[in-house]
Amino acid sequence: MKDLRVAVTAQSRRLARxxxxxxxDPVEMRRLRARVMAAxxxxxxxxxxxxxxxxxxxxxxxxxxxxAIVTYLLCLIAWTRRGPRAGDTEFLLMILVSHVFGMVSVVxxxxxxxxxxxxxxxxxxxxMGGVFCGRRRDVVVQALFGSAMIAxxxxxxxxxxxxxxxxxxxxxxxxxxSAVVRLLRDMAVAAVQRAKRGEVTDPLTGLANRRxxxxxxxRSWSTRARERAPLAVLVIDVDHFKRVNDTQGxxxxxxxxxxxxxLIAANMRHEDDVTVRLGGEEFxxxxxxxPGEAVQIAERLREQVAAxxxxxxxxxxxxxxxxxxxxxxxxxxxTAVDVADRALYVAKNGGRNRVVLALPA
Length: 361
What we know:
This protein is about 65% helix and about 10% strand. It contains twelve helices and five strands. Strand 2 and strand 3 (about 280-290) form a beta hairpin. The chain is elongated, with a radius of gyration of 31 Å.
């Protein structure tokens, strides 16, 4: 019994890892979308087979329709193999076809005019569309298309004199479900994104924090390693910042830090460049350069700070390095920061408001 319990627990954890998804990651969302569609197709095959075995065909085309639905479900399962690579338009098309087959299976299998049953069957498709459609307009398209399928089921006849009211009710329910599900999904994604940004972002300046440096810096380091190109590592410190806080107050000090952060970010030229507030009045820059360009970038930044934030000045330690493809990250990154930091102390001990390039080892 104990071995069985351990096996069940291990299997449950494995399944949880398979289905766990970061809703902010498009690749993971496409994988989850494929798994959900595969599970829906398998359930559809089972229910179709059971219905076909128990039902008495009301029309001569009943078995043809059943065969068509089974074929569609098999195609759906096959599509899930492509799911992680499928685009939003391809998925929307699959959702629209699902609406058509859902309407046909109800009308032919149960009877014409079953508007309420058709609406109920299409709501499940609308749920998947609301959650997994990549664009909001796709959710609108699938909701309107599903409403058209509901109206078509009523127009086929046999629904009694009140079928227009049933159609309007079913269409409203489907559109409302799609809208509410999408709204809740977007709120959840926004909350996760805010939480992620809070983990890697400095709240005062909006730059990355130390954790953000490890994430973004590792990507930049790996990119430059593949390109066999150098990186400039700049450690920037505000000169006599304690004096600013003591004479002008902490609010003025915070304002200087925000303005300095804006200046540093404005000097970044590549999308892989990383700007970080390491803590206090110390900042860090990881930027792509050509050989020998690092000191020029640092000098330009120092002069700009002296001109726009006077009388505030900065000292900058510079280290230019060639990342290696086999460098252990983030250790190699922090080693480069330490080298630039030692150059910064040389600049501060040498009189401040200057740039010092770290000597090669």
